[in-house]
Amino acid sequence: MTTESIIRMEAVNKWYGEFQVLTGIDLSVRQGERIVICGPSGSGKSTLIRCINRLETVQKGRIVVDGIDLTAGGKNVDAVRAEVGMVFQQFNLFPHLTILENCTLAPMRSRGMTKAQAEEVAMKYLTRVRIPEQASKYPSQLSGGQQQRVAIARALCMSPKIMLFDEPTSALDPEMVKEVLDTMIGLAEDGMTMLCVTHEMGFARSVADRVIFMADGKIVEQAPPQEFFGNPKDERTRQFLGQIL
Ligand code: ADP
Ligand code: MG
After folding, report:
1. Ligand 1 surroundings by CB, under 6 angstroms
2. Which of 50, 61, 133, 214 pairs as cysteine with 43 (C-beta 3.0–4.6 A)?
3. ipTM over 0.85
């Protein structure tokens, strides 16, 4: 891990109409750092990470991702999307495309790969998430855990520098949570910069360099897991941990 920040958010404020969803967010993430974000529903976790690949824009403050200033105008969207992969709670696979086609679409369209090149890359990552044999099936033929692993493989096919996860295991049946977390642990071990919104605190303890707690659109507290879980400082953090642990 280097000391260089690959993500910098400075004094970020965002509103949905009159409602302020993010307030004074300052966040720097080093290359290779693994961050877990937790907090009550509605606290702004999804909004915060969606700002990092510009799925959301902000009204005030500055966001720089790998040298790309997202707050400098509209033209940097493609550049940042190519560097930041995202995995959602609801998989978001294209239902009418096969698993392989789901994985080759973006690399062919925006990386200029040939079909053969894209398929080779796709098979490499489908193998890595341990479902190469599902390549010719459609999403509806796979279990939730398998679909989420395809979503991870699909993101990796774009060679992202950063991976964002928004509650990737929340929609899964309990028996499938581990296979997805294991895939994420593998990515972390390979040095991927990761921001994961999750309430899987076992994952946070074993993988995170830093755990961030959000409430009411603010970062209330952040610390390495041992300190975060062992000695939470803010009353809201203690209350939250008391509810989920
Ligand atoms: P979390 O992921 O922590 O549950 P979100 O970032 O999804 O929180 O949402 C934070 C708040 O912003 C919630 O009160 C939510 O209702 C509101 N919100 C989220 N998206 C929108 C939107 N597109 N328009 C208006 N309000 C929104
Ligand atoms: Mg959310």
Report:
1. 16, 21, 39, 41-47
2. 214
3. yes
**Which residue is it, tokens 């940042």?**
80
For the record, the structure tokens of 220 come out as 């209330």
Mutate to test the pocket of ligand 1, among 12, 47, 214 (most ligand atoms within 8 A of CB): 47
Q: Whose CA is nearest to atom 16 of ligand 1?
A: 42
From atom 13 of ligand 1, which residue's Cα is the shortest distance away? Answer: 42
76 CB-side CA count, 13 A:
20
Whether 8 contacts 63, CB under 8 Å = yes
User: Which of 14, 21, 219 to mutate to test ligand 1, by most ligand atoms within 8 A of the CB atom?
Assistant: 21
Helix axes 144-156, 115-128, angle to 10 degrees: 130
Question: Considering the entire predicted model, what is its pTM?
Answer: 0.96
Q: E-strand spans in the chain?
A: 5-16, 19-30, 34-38, 60-65, 68-69, 84-87, 162-166, 193-197, 210-215, 218-223
**Residue-wise pLDDT tens digits, 112-155:** 999 999 999 999 999 999 999 999 999 999 999 999 999 999 99
Q: How far is CA 180 from CA 116, 121, 183, 230, 238, in A?
A: 28, 20, 5, 26, 28
Q: Which residues pair with 37 in a beta bridge?
A: 197, 212
- Contact call for residues 191 and 32 (beta carbons, < 8 A): yes
Residue for token pair 């509650």? 167
The atom of ligand 1 lying closest to the CA of 217 is 10
SS3 101: helix
